[in-house]
Amino acid sequence: MLKAKNYDDINKIYDIMNTTQSNYSNMLKRLKEKKAFSNFIITYYSIALIVYSLTAEFFTDIFDEKISSYFNIILSVVVLTYSLIITNAKYSERIQIAERVMNEVKSKKRELTDSNLNEKREEYEKIIAKAEYRSEIDFFRTLKQKCKKNDINCFFYKKSLEKMSDKEEAEKLKEYLSENRS
């Protein structure tokens, strides 16, 4: 039977903040990877577009100019479409926001004491209410990190959790892992 969660417990709030910080750290990594990949793709296709144009111009005996023009139009449409997708994804803006949220949560976590628990929890909740919600992959990476820290295989975890000496941490991991399976 699951116990009711006590949100007036400093350890519980610290753990929630710690998990959130890890989620946003993983979100930051994911967004940076997507931004770098997107920039690479745009650069690659832009260079290909230039090379195809120049090749058709200077090697007329090898390349058919009409076919080259056709592929240049297709590549131009691909570059334009992908550029619009990247622009609408707003990776730079989202990276800055995720970094700000992560740092604010880290700060609240450091300031957390028994005497200011409710105040810091409310401040934390205000920060999170304005933030982008993490994706499932961000949480999964956080979960994998928690499992690795405790030497648990996150796919075959039941027996490993039973062997853990910290039963409270084992119960938290079991709850997270069971939730992630559904």
Give the helices and strands, then pairings.
Blueprint: H1 10-58, H2 65-89, H3 91-111, H4 117-129, H5 136-149, H6 158-163, H7 167-181
Helix pairs in contact: 1-2, 1-3, 1-5, 3-4, 5-7
Structure in words:
The protein is mostly helical. The protein has seven helices and no strands. Helix 1 runs antiparallel to helix 3, helix 1 crosses helix 5 and helix 5 runs antiparallel to helix 7. It starts with 9 loop residues before the first helix and ends with a helix.
- Proportion of residues in β-strands: under 5%
Order of helices and strands: HHHHHHH
Structural class: mainly alpha
Largest sheet report:
none
Compute the CA-based radius of gyration.
24 Å
How far the N terminus sits from the C terminus, by CA atoms, comes to 19 Å
Tell me, rounded to a whole number, the average pLDDT: 89
Name the overall outline.
Answer: elongated
DSSP strand tally: 0
Helix content range:
over 70%
Helix segment count? 7
Low-confidence stretches: none
Task: Describe the structure using short key phrases.
mainly alpha; 7 helices
Give a brief rundown of this model:
The protein is 79% helix and 0% strand. By secondary structure, it is mainly alpha-helical.
